[in-house]
Amino acid sequence: MTKARLDGLHLLLLGSALFVSIGFMVDRNGSGMMADFKLVYYQTRCLLQHGDPYKPSESLRAYATEGGGLAKSSGRPLQDLTPGVYLPTTLIFIAPLAMLPWGPASMLWMAFTAGSFILAAYLIWDLGADHAPVLSGCLVSFLLANSISLLITGNPQES
Fold first, then answer.
1. What local confidence, expressed as pLDDT, does residue 73 receive?
2. Would the N or C end of the chain have less CB density within 10 A of its end CB?
3. Handedness of CA 35, 37, 39, 45 (dihedral sign)
4. Domain map of the chain by residue range?
5. Alpha-carbon 24 to chain mean position
6. Which residues in the chain land under pLDDT 70?
7. Which residues contact 133 (CB under 8 A, 6 or more apart)?
8. 34-103-94 Cα angle (round to 5)
9. 61-81 burial, b for 16+ CB within 10 Å, e for fewer?
């Protein structure tokens, strides 16, 4: 491995470390984080309890029975539980995580999201590293360091 390619890889690792550490810190210190994942998680919990996840009242019931109660910031019922916007296949994909309590499920989802995104960033860097490894490392590191909202929202949206 050439020195330039090794420098580019170090930049990629630096961006990955920033992405993961800042993302996890912001998630643990913030309130109402992982809102996108929380929506599909509680809709899937509702489905596992034989409810209709596309009815907000039933999803809200599943949220309340899990100890959610009222949102701490506003004193109103959780606003994240809007009518179901995810395809049924998303609920099937999230079902193994929905069998876990919220804490471990959200951490696993965040780890899966971070790992997938870092793998994609590495593959992008590897494509560009043949021509300009340091520049590719800088650009991918910048992308990673500025994608923290991906971890904070926990977006499970499928295209």
1. 42
2. C
3. negative
4. 3-153
5. 10
6. 30-32, 67-84, 156-159
7. 2, 4, 5, 7, 8, 9, 125
8. 65
9. bbbeeeebeeeeeeeebbebb
Residue in this structure with the two tokens 């490392």, named with its chain if needed: 137
CA separation for the pair 60, 147 (Å, rounded) = 30
One-letter identity of residue 29: N
27, two tokens: 């998630």
Rounded Cα distance, 137 and 16, in Å: 11
DSSP states of the chain: --HHHHHHHHHHHHHHHHHHHHHHHHHHHSSS-SHHHHHHHHHHHHHHTT--TTSHHHHHHHHHHTT--B-TTTSSB-TT-PSP-S-HHHHHHHHHHHTS-HHHHHHHHHHHHHHHHHHHHHHHHHHHHTT-HHHHHHHHHHHHHT-HHHHHHT-----
Residue type, 36: D
